[in-house]
Amino acid sequence: MAHHALHRTVPIALGALLLAGCGSQIASTTAAAPAAAATSPAATAFAASPAPSTVSATPSTRSSAPAATGSYIGYAAYSANKAAYSAGKVVLFFHAPWCPSCRVTEENLLADPSAIPAGLTIVKIDYDTSTDLKATYGVTVQHTFVEVGADGAMLAKWSGTLTASDIAGRLV
User: What is the total count of domains within the chain?
Assistant: First the structure.
């Protein structure tokens, strides 16, 4: 009897775990990183609550300057308080969910958020919907990175990096 109950509860528990991760697309590497705009209902629900003190797959809602470690945030959070990031380095990451190399980069950023150097903010941009930003920076392919200054001017542009250290190595 216990064996049959286990067969029913394990798939349910696994399904719940899988679904819990589906709504999160951006992680903050510190509790001080701002919230990311999210399109999924699960991520939207987290936008109103403060982030935990540890790294999580849910966006943070706190706004402040980059902390001792870098951060990976959404564009809405960045654009709501650009001045908070003006002392550090900012890289826009034009990401598409259908792009295999974009997914690898995001997986790497989320798997080891401590690898993002202090003072570096990587801002996830939706490649498919951000036509104005693509035009502003001359972005024509997904998986493009654009380093911007405090004034929003492009400092560097490249494609193809997969890790935080690769991104940091391209900064000007």
Answer: 1
